[in-house]
């Protein structure tokens, strides 16, 4: 382990702020990313985006390449998904973000999307981290489902070391023995990162709980733990979402969260 | 498993509210318990209690019987600790709470204290749960460090079934692979319990993080996750606390937490 | 933590050997404990004991006091269970072992049984550990389901410090994220204990796997990891066992295990 | 999830046996892979290979691309490492195996090595799994450090579905709360796989324990749990190994393991 200070540590410079469209992540205003788990088709994506923009969501998410446990499950629309995201992003004027899983897709993906997500299952994919480190795009680095905070910030260091300091850490829940919730959202890690490191951190209460009825509470808890933003799975008809339905919330719930986040912003 | 509804489930009755001195736990006002990890001596306990009462803490905690990993470590002042708690409680007019570890101590302990804590390591001590279920005192039931929510609420059911419905669930962090924090505070569990069960739930951000610099953030996060109260280790000189020093906060920090909890209460 | 050597450490004396009937646990011959999860009634217990003795099992186990997650589940025959164990033990000339959960039961229990088990859920019940430490009986100390090796051997130290060095450590699986097996049998811990500590260690492949089809393999793996013995749940009709049926094996399987353990003994 | 049978399940065909040089993995004879954690230089690799071949090791391992937590730690000799492995493999007539981390390296790597390892941190790298599935080489698929058995066999399914059935599952320990050992070797998983699936499974007692003094016991325990082989880190001078020194064993210890594995083979 390098004994000198890491780029990710507080004493290596001022806290990093990242431009997300016309907003800045890492400042007083909390930035909210939202969208369906997977890009299903153009119409849904467009409808969802229009509604989300209207209620104040800052950036759109949607999976084009889906990392599924089983090779027989829907793998995502892939390139077509990127095309849909690009169109919808343009038409609504929203920043779009999606997960990229393969080093060979990094370069051309940036012709379609603005922000690259490194999924939880790829946090240790060091080849991929180095590859996105050579771009200039903001990178949402999801914590590995059983990654220690140490491994997580070192993963960020892999990216930053290549020249890209626009790393957004994302706490999305860790794997534990508990079975009532899909993962255990580790807000300690959010508070710890705000104390010790320079990077902004957002919270994903969707994967973090796996239950839509807990998303509101845990979004607000995440903000109070120190999160700079949230990334939440939403859909016009959650019950019909092609994946992650159980944790996806509807537009009304999204609107309530945004409203309450604004209230918390004022008092923080 | 019993197929009928459990006493602890929401459809078994209205949400349970518990009298803590002249306050009610389970209503809008968040109840705060605080005090040192261990009762060290009369003077410290008295000074701490006086200060805590002054800043608005509702009930005093302090360990008389300490469950230590090693038999060679300070086991607590035991009976003398109970005596100190009783005196200090009387002199300051504060409700006092302490952990009881042995079935044989339950009955006489209530001559000294008002609230019995079942520690994390004793959540599965069914003999002890049945014993405290036969009293009328409020019982703080700390979640086992690796107990599932299911096991935890069934442990509460052991107590309630004996006739004592005054069970206060306490989330104090679970054991995970993470080593930067002492435990992983599982606020999902707090939100889940508020959704599905009748019992009030409080959060212990002290054991839950193990780091005093995270106690403030995680206290507020806990409140937003839905907690009815907090239980926090505090001391006049945390550095000198005989145990759990690293996670113990000082009076100034306690005051700040209480102030911010009040602010959150208003907006909730 | 005490800086001097612990009683449980190798440099505090020679390896501890414990008399189990006319056998010695801790020597070349592996000692096998077996019996049903719960003492169900006299006839079953007697039949099982007779068969087990015949195939070479050294000591009988059976639960009289069952630590159940739910208070509505069968709690065991309790005192009546002790009476059955005593009778059957006498009639078959077998050593009997059962779990005791309450400090108040320790003394009289020894009028009925020879060996006291401290269950996984009570490994941190320090009052109980001290109490059994004041007896002379062999104590099977099951590892807490999420107890570190350190906490486990310190729990043994609690017992030894009171004067009773007859502590048998029992690895019975730890709680992890894996759901296909009930627990994760941690044989590393068995090998580690044989390297560093003085106490004998046995393996429970029944709770350790939760699946009867894995009990044979894991028994033999446990022996090769260094275990001094095994403790296995068996029944004449496993499908009809009142608890833990899924992991209970029949007499034929027990016989096969004993036979293969003997073979391994020769080559070790 | 696909409801039909998976290629990896027993009812999809007979158990899969894989050619490793002139040996068959999956039959009575246990196959042993060994070598240093990292390819350090040509001389060491050559010396180690010569000695390992002499004592009966079947295939050589050595890391050319090292997945390090920190980007500042030795990343491996990379392409030069592959060249060394190829030379040494040829000169000693040994099968060589190394980890490949990037989809772009898969094709050319097979000009240098015989077997590709997918490391624990890349078990969820579905792009990489599909890529190696399109080759004909044997693939050692290490279990993710917190991957469930289900996710693990589905990862194997990703590879097999592309046409490559030569998948060797490797249990290398899972991440748990225990800190005395580096990982917790989950031999239950080995026994479970032999019961339910068609693929051969080998055990890595080096990463699985992290302590060289436990490697012998856990190797033999792994064989009794049902493993078809072992993969062990060894070095002429473990203390001087550039990485993983603490778990690396010397040639004398390797010889002892091979000898005892042969003995176990006879009695199984």
UniProtKB/TrEMBL annotation, chains A, B, C, D:
Keywords: Transferase. It holds the Pfam family DAHP_synth_1. Coiled coil: none annotated. One of its GO terms (biological process) is aromatic amino acid family biosynthetic process. Residues 18-262 form the DAHP synthetase I/KDSA domain. It comes from the Bacteria. Signal peptide: none annotated. The keyword Transferase applies. GO terms for molecular function: aldehyde-lyase activity; transferase activity. NCBIfam families: DAHP_synth_Bsub (TIGR01361), PRK08673.1 (NF006421), PRK12595.1 (NF009239). This is 3-deoxy-D-arabinoheptulosonate-7-phosphate synthase. It comes from Clostridium frigidicarnis.
């Amino acid at each position: 382990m390098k004994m000198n200070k890491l780029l990710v540590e507080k004493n290596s410079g001022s806290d990093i702020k990242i431009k997300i469209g016309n907003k800045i992540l890492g400042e007083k205003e909390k930035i909210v990313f939202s969208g369906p788990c997977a890009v299903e088709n153009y119409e849904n994506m467009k409808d969802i985006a229009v509604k989300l923009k209207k209620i104040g969501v800052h950036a759109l998410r949607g999976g084009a390449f889906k990392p599924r446990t089983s090779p027989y499950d829907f793998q995502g629309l892939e390139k077509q998904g990127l095309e849909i995201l690009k169109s919808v992003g343009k038409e609504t004027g929203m920043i779009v973000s999606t997960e990229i899983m393969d080093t060979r897709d990094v370069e051309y993906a940036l012709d379609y999307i603005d922000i690259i997500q490194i999924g939880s299952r790829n946090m240790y994919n060091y080849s991929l981290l180095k590859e996105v480190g050579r771009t200039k795009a903001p990178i949402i680095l999801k914590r590995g489902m059983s990654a220690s905070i140490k491994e997580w910030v070192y993963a960020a260091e892999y990216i930053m070391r290549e020249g890209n300091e626009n790393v957004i850490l994302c706490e999305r829940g860790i794997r534990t023995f508990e079975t009532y919730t899909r993962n255990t959202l580790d807000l300690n890690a959010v508070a710890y990162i705000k104390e010790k490191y320079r990077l902004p951190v957002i919270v994903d209460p969707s994967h973090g709980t796996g239950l839509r009825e807990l998303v509101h509470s845990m979004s607000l808890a995440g903000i109070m733990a120190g999160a700079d933003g949230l990334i939440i799975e939403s859909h016009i008809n959650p019950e019909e979402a092609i994946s992650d339905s159980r944790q996806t919330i509807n537009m009304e719930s999204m609107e309530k969260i945004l409203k309450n986040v604004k209230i918390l912003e004022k008092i923080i």
